[in-house]
Structures are given as C-alpha cells and as structure tokens.
Amino acid sequence: MKYISTRGQADALNFDEALLAGLARDGGLYLPEKWPEFSAEEIRDMAGKPYTEIVFRVVKPFIDGVIPDKDLKEIIEDSYAGFRHTAIAPLKQINGRIWVMELFHGPTLAFKDFALQMLGRLFDYILKKRGERITIVGATSGDTGSAAIEACRDRDQIDIYILHPHGRVSEVQRRQMTTVTSHNVTNIALEGTFDDCQDHVKAMFNDQNFRDTVNLSAVNSINWARIMSQIAYYFAAGVALGAPDRPIGFSVPTGNFGNVFAAYAAGRMGLPVSQLVVGSNRNDILTRFFETGSMTMNPVEPSLSPSMDIQVSSNFERLLFDLLDRDGSAVEAALNAFREGGNFDLEPERHQRVLRLFDAYRLDDEQTLSMISDYYVKTGELFDPHSVIAVAAAEAKIRDDVPAMVCMATAHPAKFPDAVCKASGVTPELPEHMADLFDREEKYTVMDNDLTKLKDLVLSRRRNS
Ligand SMILES: *Cc1c(COP(=O)(O)O)cnc(C)c1O
Predict the structure, then answer these.
(1) pLDDT tens per residue, range 97-137
(2) Distance from the CA of 465 to the center of ligand 1, in angstroms?
(3) Is 112 among the catalytic positions?
(4) What mean pLDDT do residues 421-437 have?
C-alpha cells in the first residue's frame, strides 16, 4: 500500500514513511493510493468480535506488512488496555433510531485517545526499529494536546511540544496537559487562536531545513495513522447495528474534520454508510459550506465546545481531493484561493454529489445548553457540549431511509463541568484516576504569537540521539 499526497507533488510513501512524515513535503496530506475494500462477508464476520480484533482487521490492509501481524496485534492490545470500559467504545440507544457511541473512556476522556494511544506506540515501534528520534510539534484546541502528551510521555525516541491558545482551553483540558511534567514534554501557551497555533505548526513543516534538523513529525489529525485508527469504531458501530445488511448513518461533532473523514473512509471501504451529519458550533464554516457549496472564512469565536472552535479544517482537504477527482493541482489551486481570498466555491454538480452523503447542522451556545438540559431530563444522560451537538444534529437531520444513526460522543462531560453544570444543575465528576487533577502542579510556558521564537525554543532544547 502506497500513500499519496493530496497536492499530487510529493513522492508516494510506504506506511512507516507516511507515519513519520505527517504532512507531505508539498504541503498536502497523505491518503492511501487506493481504498482497501471489505466484502459483505468480511464485514458480517466482524460482528460480535472484540473491539481490538476489529481494529486489527481494519488497519491491517493499511499497514500492509510493514509491521508483522503479531507485533501489530500487541500494539493494538496495549493501546486499548488503559481504557476504562470493558467494551472500549460502548453503544447506547437514545431513542428510536438514534444511538450514541461513547468514545470517552480512554486515559484523557476524549475520543482522541483512540487514535493517539495507537499513534504513540506505532511511532515508538518504528523509531526503535530504525534507531531514530523525532520531534513532535502539535497544535491543540484542547483535547489533542493532552491525548498526545499522554501517548508520548516518557518515550525515549520522542520529544513533544504542544501549543495551545492561551486562555482558550478549559481548565480541565489545560491541566491534563500541563500537569504532565515528563522530561520530554513541553507545553506552550500561545498568545493567539487555535488557527494561529496550527499555522505555526504548518509553517515549521514547510521550513525544510528546520524540519530536517529536528526530525519533525506530527500528531495532529493531518497524520494518516490517526484517521486509520478511527475508522475501526465506525465498523464496530456499523456491524453492531446490522451492517452490511442494513445501512447506517453517523453524526459527528466536527472541528478539524478528522473524525468524520474516518467515517467517510469506512464508507469507501465497504461499510454501507448512507448519511453523515457534520455538527458545528457557531464556528460554522463547514455547515455553511455544505449548505451553499461555498467555503468562506470568518474569524474564530470562542464557544462552549472549544475543540470545535476552528475555521480551517485541515482534513477537509482529504475529502476535497476525492471531490476533485483526486486531482492534486486542483486541490492546491482551491486551497490557495481559500488562503488568499478567504473563499472558494465548489461547482454545483460536485456540491450536489457531496449532499447525497453529507448534511450539516449548527448549534449556538444557548441551544447547546438547552439541549444538554433536555437530554438530561429525557434520558438521564449528561452530554458534554461537543457530544450534544452530534445528538441534536442527528435528531434534526436524520433522513427517513436511515434505519439507525450513531452519534459520536467525543468527550466525557466532566471535561467541561462548567457548561454541563450550567445547563443541567449537575456537576459531573471526574473519574477516579483524575480526581486529584486540580491539586497537581502545572508546568507551561506562555509565548508570543511568533514563529521565530517558537523555532528557537525547539532548536535550543534539541537532544542528540
Ligand atoms: C477534537 C474534538 C472534536 C473534533 O474532531 P475533529 O476530528 O477535529 O473533527 C470534537 N469533539 C471533541 C471533544 C474533540 O476533542
């Protein structure tokens, strides 16, 4: 299996090379050259299997022998051993056709653990084999950072720098990052927005000299291996609810478009995905795009669901690549127009094609609070401000011919206690392993919104192998 760039200029890579590279050298994102496809029989056979077995079957064709099966199985078992629910990704019915998949039972209480626990171990395995070290620089709007830090802490082959927008992540989110004081972890609070953080990370990747000097790699969802790991839970949900013999829809609270792209990928691989609902908060660039076919940038505004406070969704580029018939130069032209003019338009026929699968829905903060309260009263479930957007979006948008829709619950309510309490009157409790989070010591550096200073910091701390 070879991986190609969405901008069509970079060399095709093997799995291990794409894993370590993160962003392609032409600025694009890696995708498999061809989607592996499962037969109906193979999909049917996943039903009732343990979660880790489904992961193994789903990722095996992507890894394509680069890691021997036995080692891959061990990596997968180990990645999910720390989850605190025996089902790993339990599924619950909310009403008639609406289900919720709880993706927040990992070590940092957000769905990012699904991908990052595996990513950290995949890196470690490949780097040890090659005798190499890497520097990871990542931007986080909240949850990626803690999940990445948790996955990479104390690993000898890795130094990790995580940038978060100063004052724009919740206290639980910040503390989950900054109370990890391992020698190989540096937390940076940047005086800027999440998009500024993400732009700096991209700029570091585009500086080939810097990139080579520190052996830069990525944990943001631009890394293909993250998307790959997430595809597994869509298969798990699908077969639990009757796939391949019954179609299924998914509703996904969306920021960087990684999670919903994994659902799309599951569809390309043979799962009968008949509807995808993209949920957003008031930062609704994606909702407006699906409604109109025109992508227009607005400033980012803080909301109750900070992990979705994004205007430029990196992984959208992967969908765009397919929408533009896998023409890398067309992708590049569209994204350049977007960067320069803040806008690009999809041709009407292509827009219509997207709408056969995708719908989108937005909730502002007030609606988010009232939905948390509503579902608490109706079902006894406490949803966090991200997950509730998926549930409300599913109820609003599910099509008549979709027999079951699964909403991705991406964070534990205790990660966002203020909003949840304001809405429901109940303060969700942190699970036991985090009960002392507010007593732990924090370590982080506040920095100007300045790329040169950031690079200097990373260079000054470089260790030799
Ligand atoms: C990261 C995150 C999202 C957005 O996921 P994307 O893959 O970036 O679209 C939604 N909810 C929570 C809780 C998150 O941490």
Answers:
(1) 999 999 999 999 999 999 999 999 999 999 999 999 999 99
(2) 34
(3) yes
(4) 92
Pocket test of ligand 1: the residue of 101, 103, 116, 143 to mutate, having most ligand atoms within 8 Å of its CB, is: 143
Structure tokens that stand for 187 in this block: 């937390």
Its sign, for the CA torsion 145, 62, 9, 329, is negative
- pLDDT tens-place string over residues 290-348: 999 999 999 989 899 988 988 889 999 999 999 999 999 999 999 999 989 999 999 99
Which tens digit of pLDDT belongs to each residue from 64-99? 999 999 999 999 999 999 999 999 999 999 999 999
Residues 408 and 410: their CA atoms lie apart, in Å, by 6
For residues 338 and 345, give the distance between their C-alpha atoms in angstroms, rounded to a whole number: 9
Ligand 1 pocket: which of 259, 303, 358, 416 to mutate (most atoms within 8 A of CB) = 259
Counting Cα atoms < 13 Å in the Cβ hemisphere of 48 gives 2
Establish if 379 belongs to a structural domain.
yes
What is the separation, in whole angstroms, between the first and last Cα of the chain? 30
- Can you give the residue range of the structural domain that contains 416? 91-110+224-424
Q: For ligand 1, atom 8, which residue shows the shortest CA distance?
A: 256
pLDDT for 158:
93
Give the CATH number of the domain where residue 382 resides: 3.40.50.1100
| 194 in any annotated domain | no
Tell me if 311 sits within 8 A of 281, measured CB to CB. Answer: no
Check if the beta carbon of residue 179 is closer than 8 Å to that of residue 440.
yes
Taking only the tens place, the pLDDT of each residue in 272-303 is: 999 999 999 999 999 999 999 999 999 989 89
Q: What residues flank ligand 1, with Cβ below 6 Å?
A: 110, 112, 143, 221, 253-259, 307-308, 386, 410-411
Q: Could you identify the residue written with the tokens 């993209």?
A: 278
Mean pLDDT of all residues in 374-385: 96
Cβ atoms of 424 and 382 within 8 Å: the answer is yes
Q: Specify if 256 maps to a domain.
A: yes
Q: Is the CB of residue 157 less than 8 Å from the CB of residue 127?
A: yes
Domains in the chain: how many in total?
Answer: 1
Rounded to 5 degrees, what angle do the CA atoms 296, 315, 302 make?
55
Selecting among 92, 112, 129, 455, the annotated active-site residue is: 112
Q: How far apart are alpha carbons 195 and 217 in whole angstroms?
A: 19
Of 101, 234, 254, 278, best ligand 1 pocket probe by most atoms within 8 Å of the beta carbon: 254
| Protein residue closest via CA to atom 14 of ligand 1 | 307
